[in-house]
Amino acid sequence: MDLLTRAGRAARQARGGPASHAHDPARVVFLALFGLVAAGWALVAIDGGQFLTMESVVGIQQRSAALGIVAIGQTLAILAGSLDLSVAYLISLASLVAAEIMAGQDGNIGPAIAAVLVISALVGLFNGLVITRLQVHAFIATLGAALIIKGVVDHLYDGPAGKVPESFQLLGYSRVGPIPVSAMLWAGVAVVAWFLLSRTRLGHRIYAVGGDEEVARLSGIRTPRVIVITHVLCSVCAGIAGLLLAARLGAGAPTVGTDGGYDLESIAAVVLGGTALAGGRGGVAGTVGGVLLLAVLDTIFNQLEINSFVKDVVRGAVIVVAVAVYARRGTRRTA
Amino acid sequence: MRRALPILAVLVVLLAAIAIANPFILEPAGFLAFLKRAAPLVVLAAGQYFVVVSGEFDLSVGSLVTAEVVIAARLIDGDESATWPVLALLIVAGLLAGLVNGVLTTKLRVPSFIVTLGMLLVLSGAVFLWTGGAPRGALSEGFREFGRGGLGPVPWSVLILLVTGAAAIWLMRADFGRTLMATGDNERAAALSGVRVDRVKIFAFMLSGLSAAVAAILLGGFAGVSAQAGQGLEFSAITAVVLGGVVLGGGRGSVLAAMAGAVTLEALFTLLNLYGISGALEFTVQGVIIIAAVAAGAIRLPRKPTPRRGDAHAAS
Q1: Looking at per-residue confidence, does A193 or A15 come out higher?
Q2: Residue A277 is nearest to which of B113, B290, B295, comparing CB atoms?
Q3: Which residue is closest to A143 within chain B, CA to CA?
Q4: What are the TM regions of this chain, as residue ranges (chain A) (predicted)?
C-alpha cells in the first residue's frame, strides 16, 4: 500500500510538470518574501530611513547572485535525492583557477572560463561516480571531495592569487538600469534549470529518482546516470559562482567559498524554498524565492544596523520555522 | 563485537604504522597520551552514533562544543569556586540543546539535517553576540584538570572515555538500544509495534547534546578557550561514526565500532603528522581515505535489504 501511494506520487510528479510540484511551496515562499519586504519597509520607515532605494534593490540582487547560482545547482542535486557539501571549496578552487589563467590578460578570459567549467564538471563527475559506483552516501562522498579540494587549495595558496582583467570584472559590478549583470546571469541559470526540470525528459527523471529511486529503477530509468548528471550540473553551477566571485574580487581567493558558507547556506536556501530534503518534491522557483528571502533579511538587518550575529540567530530560526510550516502543510494534504 | 572487527583491524594496522615511526606509542604513557588526545572526538562519536543509528543527523555538536567552552570561560572567569556549578550548567545546557533538536525534529517533522543546521546558526550567532566577537574570561585550574590532569598516570579524560564507552554499550543492550535500533531500521514498523518513536529519538538527541557537553569540558581543559574550539567537529564525528561501519539512514552498526572509528580517525591524523604529510595536504589524504574506507565497507558487506524493496516483492 505504502509502495503504491509512493509510486503514484512519483508518477504524478513526473507527468504533471511544474504546476503540480513547484508551485505550492514556491507560492508560500513568495508570499513570505512579499510580507518580509512590507515588514522591512515599515520597520525601516519607522527608523527614519527608506527601504526600497535603488541602492538597496541593487544590493539585494548582488548579494544573492552567487548564492543563488550555487543554490540552483544544489536544487538539482537535492531533487534527485542527493546533496553536495563540496560546493564551497569548489567555488574557491574555481575562483583561483579563473584568476590564475586570466593573469590580467583580456585574451585569456575564454580559456579561463573553459578551464573552470571543465574542472567543475570533473569534480561533479567524481562526486556522482563515487556515490553511484562505490555506493558511498552522498553526505560522506561530497564531504570527502570537499576535504580533497581543501587540501589541494590550501597547499598551493595561502592568500589571494592571480588577477582578473578589468573587462571581466564588469561581470561583478556593472548593471543595466536597476539590474546587475550578475543577477541576469543568475536569472539565466535559473531559467535553464527550470526548463530542464519541467520541459525535458531528464527533468522528469530527476523527480522520479528523488521520489523513489527503487521505483524509478524498476520503471526503467538508469538512476545512476541521472544522479551523476545532477552532480555534474550542480558542480558546474558552483564553478559559475566561482567565476562571478573572482570577477567581483578581481582575484582568486582560497577562502572565498567557505567564508560565504556556500555549502550549508545553499542547502538551507533550497529547503527554505520548499524543496524536500529527501528529494522528489520542489523546484527552482522556490529556491530563487528562498535566496531572495535570505538576502532581504540581510538587507533589513544592515539598514537597521543590527549586530550581524543576531542575523545568524534569526536566520537559523527562520529556516527551521519555514520547513516546519511546509511539513505541516504536507501532512494535512496527505491526511 | 563482531561488527567492530573490520574497523579494529584497520585501527591495529594504523597503530602499527605509527609505532614503526614512533615506538613511544607502544609504551603505556605514549598510548595513554594518544587516547587522551582522541577522547573528545570519541565521546562525540558515541553521542552522534545514537542520533545516526536512529536515522537522523546532528550537525549542531561542533557549534555546541564551541558555545559551551566560551560560556564556561566567561562564567568561571578564573574563579575556582565557580567550577562545579558551571560544570553542572554545561551538562544541563547540552541536554537542553539536544532536547530542542529532538522535539523540533519529531514534533514539527522538520528533517534533522535542517533542525540541527538551524541550531548551529543560532548557537554560533548567539555565542558571538554574547561575547562580542571574541571569547573572554578564563577557565579555572579545577576545570582544566579534566582535560589535562589525571589520576596517577591515567588521565581523567581516558577514564571519562572508558565510562562513556561502558555507558553507551550498556544503553545499547538495554531496552532503549533495541527500540532505538528498531526505530532507525524501520520507523513505521517500530511505531506499529508499540515503540514510542518520538521519545526514543528525543532521547538520542539529548545523548548527543550530553556528549557535546562532555567533549567541551575535555577540550576546554586540553586545548584551552578559543572561538574555534569545536570547528568542524560535527563532520569529524559523523565521519568517525561512518568509518565504524554505521549506516547513515539508521538501523545498522554498533556503538563500539563507532567509537573505534573515532580512535581510527585520530590515529590517521597522528600518522599523517608523523610521516610528514604537511599541513594542508593532510586534508586531501583524509578525504581520499574516508571515501575509500566507506566505499570498501559498502562493497564488502552484503547490501541491506531495505523494507521498501521487501514491499515491492510482496506487491509483485
Answers
A1: A193
A2: B113
A3: B287
A4: 28-46, 67-91, 111-131, 138-157, 177-197, 226-247, 267-297
In chain B, which residues have pLDDT < 70?
A: 1-3, 278, 297-316
**pLDDT confidence band for A119 (50 / 70 / 90):** very high
Distance CA A210, CA B278 (A): 40
C-alpha cell at position B20: 614503526
Range of the domain at A86: 65-288
In degrees rounded to 5, what are phi and psi of residue B32?
Answer: -65, -40
- Residues of A in Cβ contact (< 8 Å) with B133: 309
Q: What is the pLDDT confidence band of residue A15, given thresholds at 50, 70 and 90?
A: very low
CB within 8 Å: B235 and A143? yes
For residue A5, being part of any structural domain is answered with no
Does A189 map to a domain? yes
Residues from chain A contacting residue B57 (CB–CB below 8 Å): 139
In a domain, A314, yes or no: no
ipTM above 0.85, yes or no: no
Q: Are B55 and B184 in contact (CB under 8 A)?
A: yes
Query: Which of A147, A153, A332 should be substituted to probe chain B, the one whose Cβ sees the most B Cβ atoms within 10 Å?
Result: A147
Is A218:B309 a contact under the CB 8 Å cutoff?
A: no
**Binary contact (A140, B294; C-beta < 8 A):** yes
Topology (CATH level 3) of domain B2-296: ABC transporter involved in vitamin B12 uptake, BtuC (1.10.3470)
- A239 near A90, Cβ under 8 Å? yes
